[in-house]
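U., I forgot to send this yesterday:
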Amino acid sequence: MTTAQGELQDKVAVITGAARGIGAAIAEAYDKEGAIVVVSDIDGEGAERVAKGLSRGSAIQCDVTDEASVQALIDGTVAQHGRVDIAVANAGVGRPMALAEMNLAEWRKVTSVNLDGVFLTIRAAALAMAATGGGSIIGMASITGFKGSALIGDYAAAKAGVINLCKTAATEFRAHNVRVNAMCPTFLDTVLVQEAVPTFEAALGVPFDQIISQKQGRMGQVSDVTPLAVFLASERYRFSTGSAFVVDHGWLASLV
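Result:
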């Protein structure tokens, strides 16, 4: 009797920002599909907790804003498992703030994680993949990368940069069989979003639930986006690269 294999059976996957939220959910989804998952986060203890819940998980602490730390993450994965097949550049931060109130240090705190960190992860992972026959990279963008939004100008600008960066990387690494795509989820029920809700409500003067109901019907769950993360990493998507996939339950589809 044969045992059913998952779509990512024995693939080696690295996920940044995976101690909670979308990253942790993707780690669990990849684990269920048979992948060997390296859980990475600046929160080393959180990464360890997630990794312990996986069948073949391990954790490596990483600060994605530090070039040496990102390189050590990829090098450590290759040293332990021989290669990197999948990389999800997911680490991100955000705090609602009007541009007029934002200083340069606050701007850079968000963009260094959300854009610089994606660049460093993509570059290190793509080079490692190119040396071993290829792989799939996913950059975590957002629907905010397509439209401006009050209070998250730094976050939205970084996510727009991630979308374009993934397209450029897809073109440059295509000859090495390295695919690069962007995922662009809407507002999900994560700690990052819930922490921002009071600030949004105070500034906009309407309940956040009302905005969600009008624009996307209901609050998204991490389980709404993990199937796409599996698909983009799988062989089913092997011929496509350089795309940005929106998962927003219709948010961008209409003006009102």
